[in-house]
UniProtKB/TrEMBL annotation:
GO terms for biological process: protein stabilization. GO terms for molecular function: adenyl-nucleotide exchange factor activity; protein-folding chaperone binding. Residues 41-109 form the Ubiquitin-like domain. Signal peptide: none annotated. This is BAG family molecular chaperone regulator 4.
Length: 261
């Protein structure tokens, strides 16, 4: 709009166009494409024991301040709360209208909800790390027992008779590790690691049970084979009793006597 002509106004100022800025301030309208952000000011923002200095136009908003602080503090703009003279400021408020001037000081606090969420994430990460370390400790013990199971397997396969106590003790040691795994609270990747280790221990226990049975009855495999062969013979011939030579001779003698008579 045009400025109302005042007394004594020169012809050069008659047609100057003015525009209203936030807060009711009238300033001369600039040409399109020309940006007028006003004077630059320096402000200090305090976060805990840290102090951050910012240089920005006086007519910037508090949201602009938050965006600059994001690079310095690591806090996203929506995670920040800005205070000036003890009052929290809204994002759309302008610095100069709120009374912020050169060398003014602001207070920055992290949003409580955001802070709690971050603390919860850190807690979960620490718990996952602790669980992973616990599983790794069990895995190291199971590795040692795996060598023991392998040695027993080689002995049994080689026909060496092993004391049953060896199988009992090895199984008991594995079960102890299984109890340790059961007591580990885990989530995410650590939970998958624990599950895999539980399955591994159970497989070793099953292997020991099988080896113990074979060790107690080393000929069980051959006996089963012989039984199977006799069953096959029985199914094919209808009888397990083979004819003897005595019965054959007896029939021949009987036949000879009948012919003599």
């Amino acid at each position: 709009m045009k400025n109302p002509r005042s007394a004594g106004a020169s012809p050069e100022t008659e047609d100057i166009e003015w525009e209203m800025r936030p807060g009711g301030m009238f300033v001369q309208r600039r040409e399109v494409g020309v940006v007028d952000d006003g004077p630059m000011i320096k402000i200090t923002v305090t976060l805990g024991s840290s102090h951050h200095e910012l240089y920005l136009p006086a007519q910037s908003t508090f949201w602009d301040v938050k965006k600059l602080l994001a690079h310095k503090t690591g806090l996203q703009p929506e995670e920040q709360r800005l205070f000036f003279k003890g009052k929290e400021k809204e994002n759309e408020e302008h610095l100069h209208l709120a009374g912020v001037k050169d060398k003014s000081k602001l207070l920055l606090l992290e949003d409580a909800v955001s802070k709690e969420r971050k603390l919860e994430e850190i807690r979960k990460q620490n718990e996952m790390l602790k669980a992973s370390e616990a599983v790794a400790g069990v895995r190291a013990e199971v590795d040692k027992l795996a060598d023991r199971v392998l040695a027993l397997e080689v002995a049994v396969d080689g026909g060496t008779r092993v004391s049953d106590k060896e199988f009992i003790v090895s199984t008991e040691l594995l079960m102890r590790q299984l109890l340790k795994l059961d007591g580990i609270e885990a989530e995410g990747e650590a939970k998958m690691q624990r599950k895999a280790e539980v399955r591994r221990v159970q497989n070793f226990v099953d292997t020991l049970d099988s080896l113990k049975a074979r060790n107690s009855n080393p000929f069980s495999g051959k006996a089963a084979s012989v039984t199977t062969q006799w069953e096959t013979f029985n199914n094919g011939m209808g009888s397990l009793n083979a004819p003897t030579s005595t019965s054959s001779s007896s029939r021949n003698v009987t036949q000879d006597w009948e012919r003599v008579d």
